[in-house]
Design brief:
The protein is of the alpha/beta class. Helices cover about 35% and strands about 30% of the residues. The protein has eleven helices and 15 strands. The strands form three sheets. It has a seven-stranded mixed beta sheet with strand order 6-7-8-3-9-10-15, with helices on both faces. Helix 5 runs parallel beside helix 6.
Length: about 325
């Protein structure tokens, strides 16, 4: 069962196309990661799926509900956690969850057991009487998630839910999401962190409102348009400039202390060409063919200007 489906989803703000002709499908119990830099259109997609904004063109369905025509019914099935979730800082952890339980009309009979479950799996039970303003950033995010889950949604929409959260809290957050996945909750997350994308069942890479590629992390990493070569050397910025001038690579970027360059052609032949060029430049370097990361894919596909969606799912 597909719980999220979009067809040609487009949203314009005046002359600016924030979301450009996006068509995706997400199955029940999948974790779909929408990945892209700031300004790529991630939040706009989230708001369209939550029924908070109407598309300029195209349609979206979530759990069988059209996000505009069935917006009232949609509220029964989804929970949307924006970047700034509305916690009440002067209320305790328990009081915040009770407040959202009231908003979602969760019965008193079901509420006690549900809240105890949420506090337990988020490790928040010891802090139930602490005011939200006295929680760390990661704990505030876990409290926000507990509030979003109090009515047991079928679909969870999370907009950059771990932005600014420490690594341990990010790990805890994903542990909770995996528990929800086992319960067949469909999870749609947006993130700028490519390492988080590796945790998703499927991902879509978004750039300037366009979905440039989608599929599983392994499928996407197999789609690099060329051979990826790693170069470790001194004067790396000078080397990058010469690689671009002499070889016209699909992309050439600095990753830590290593250059990643993507070139078309046969791997053995290309590696020899790169080695010879470096020798001619008088550069002493270590070179090797390496397996691409999602970051390599994203950079190379933007640089090569694919101009559309490449869907490998």
């Amino acid at each position: 069962m597909d719980t999220i489906v979009t067809t040609g989803l487009t949203r314009n703000f005046g002359d600016n196309i924030a979301v450009n002709n996006i068509s995706i499908s997400v199955k029940e119990g999948e974790v779909f990661g929408l990945v892209g830099p700031d300004g790529a259109g991630k939040t706009t997609v989230m708001r369209l799926l939550a029924g908070l904004m109407a598309p300029t063109y195209g349609d979206a369905w979530v759990y069988g509900c059209n996000t505009i025509k069935d917006s009232e019914q949609l509220k029964d099935y989804i929970s949307y956690m924006p970047q700034r979730f509305g916690l009440y800082l002067d209320l305790t952890v328990q009081e915040n969850i009770d407040f959202y339980a009231d908003l979602y009309n969760v019965s008193r009979k079901k509420r006690k057991e549900k809240i105890a479950e949420l506090l337990a799996f988020s490790n928040m039970t010891p802090f139930r009487d602490r005011q939200a303003k006295n929680l760390s950033g990661g704990m505030k995010q876990k409290l926000a998630l507990a509030c979003a889950l109090v009515h047991t949604p079928k679909v969870l929409l999370l907009d950059e839910h771990t932005n600014g959260v420490d690594p341990l809290s990010r790990r805890d957050f994903w542990r909770i999401l995996y528990q929800l996945k086992k319960k067949k909750v469909t999870i749609f997350v947006s993130t700028a962190y490519l390492d988080e994308a590796e945790r998703c069942s499927k991902i879509g890479l978004l750039h300037q409102g366009k979905m440039i590629i989608s599929g599983t992390p392994d499928e996407i990493k197999s789609q690099i348009p060329g051979i990826l070569i790693g170069i470790r050397c001194k004067k790396s910025r000078e080397v990058i400039m010469n690689l671009k001038k002499e070889l016209s690579p699909l992309s050439a970027s600095l990753f830590g202390d290593k250059i990643h360059v993507v070139l078309p052609g046969e791997s053995t032949q290309i590696l020899q060409i790169v080695k010879q060029l470096l020798t001619d430049m008088g550069v002493n370097a270590e070179t090797e063919i390496i397996n691409p990361s999602l970051e390599d894919i994203f950079i190379s596909m933007i640089a090569s200007d694919t101009g559309g969606v490449s869907n490998v799912s």
